[in-house]
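Structure in, sequence out. Go:
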């Protein structure tokens, strides 16, 4: 596009097709945070609740072993610290970070945009598709 339009862009916004519930507010918010904070990148993130690392286990020689060794019994909603995962939705990147360094995220100046839970579904399976379809028809 830069060659076609004879212009060098400052930012690249990558919008992933597998996350159809994001909206223009989310995209605009990523762009605003990218420019306001002078971040290298702003990534849409979603809060991890059900798959919190404290609930994850390994199986070694058929025995269940905690991955995180600081054991605390509590409801999954109360697990701390709060953890987040890339939502696979929106990536806002400074052009030079992508072109010169080959990075979409991961610098020490990457920031998070917290995508609301109801818009953070990522379609990677038939089950995900059914959930997204339901949300589009009934909720959103």
């Amino acid at each position: 596009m830069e060659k076609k339009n004879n212009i060098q862009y400052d930012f690249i916004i990558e919008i992933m097709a597998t996350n159809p519930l994001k909206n223009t507010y989310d995209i605009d918010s990523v762009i605003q945070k990218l420019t306001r904070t002078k971040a290298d990148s702003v990534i849409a993130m979603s809060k991890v609740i059900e798959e919190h690392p404290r609930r994850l286990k390994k199986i070694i020689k058929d025995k269940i072993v905690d991955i995180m060794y600081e054991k605390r019994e509590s409801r999954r909603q109360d697990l701390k610290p709060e953890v987040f995962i890339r939502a696979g939705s929106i990536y806002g990147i400074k052009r030079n970070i992508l072109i010169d360094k080959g990075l979409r995220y991961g610098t020490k100046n990457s920031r998070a945009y917290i995508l609301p839970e109801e818009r953070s579904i990522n379609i990677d399976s038939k089950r995900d598709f059914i959930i997204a379809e339901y949300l589009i028809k009934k909720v959103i």
